[in-house]
Amino acid sequence: MAKPGKTPPRKDLIEAWTDFYGEPPPKGLSGRLLHMACAYNEQVKEHNGLKDQAIRDLMRYVDASSDPTSTKPHATKLTQPAAGTRFVREWRGRTHVVDIIDGGVQYQGETYKSLSHVARIITGTCWSGPRFFGVQSP
User: What is the maximum alpha-carbon separation in the chain?
Assistant: First the structure.
């Protein structure tokens, strides 16, 4: 693989993928995803594989997502920040303060349904509120 910070040539990534999976990558796979997958595989090899609990968790998600009768969502929903959480975000030279309260989000004395609604008010365009305010998943 290439040095950290350098993206290897695509042919090297395809070769690494093929060595690991025993077949070439799917057609149309982006270079970025190919690079990330190869880097992940290198880390797994370096650390002697995944922990048993991680494998069980992954298999549970795979089973749930491949079952057409499953009512479980395919993606894990982000946990809503707890009431009392405060987000401070600077946008175009102004500081915006948002508080999470029971039943919503408070911004400039008004209550809104979601962080995304507030992000849209601040930016004037559609944003993911959690992304705009830097919410990290647990």
Answer: 59
